[in-house]
Amino acid sequence: MGFWGTLSTGIDRLNQFLGKAASIMILLSCVVSALNALLRYSLDISNNWPLELQWYLFAAAVMLGAAYTLKRNEHVRVDLIYSQVSDRGRIYIDLFGLIVFLMPACILFTWLSWTTLFYPSWLVSEHSLNAGGLLRYPIKLVVPFGFFMLSLQGLSEIIKRIGALQGKETLPVADLHYEKPMQ
Prior knowledge:
Shape: elongated
Number of helices: 5
Number of strands: 0
Largest sheet: none
Strand content: under 5%
Radius of gyration: 20 Å
Helix content: over 70%
């Protein structure tokens, strides 16, 4: 697909990297939690920054992991007809959902979180009100960035599905795999 295929591959690689980074953030969140417990209960040192750092790492992992989860086709689906249609039908359903629901919502949330969450916080260099707390605006930047990356991954998925409908690209089996819930 030329340019579009290259763009899709680049977006996929970027979100693959961010997904791995999100996994590491979960691990770091656990390490920080253990460190906080050690400081608090063994050494009687109480500070808020480890707790806030743990929250920040977990929040960043969720926001950065969303696009990676979409790339891996592991988001939750509400199955009304998806399991009853052919692979081609599933591609059309995916395209409809991506274009009508995902993209408008992600673009709106990117804009809203930038203008009402991050930007005002950045303008005043917002800090935590807790003693020893961290800056707030860096973690608030993760929200619009996460939605932006989810939008880009949505674009990549649209490109791949259009390519599959045109016969120019073959979707991985995992992209069309449907695991029917237990009855």
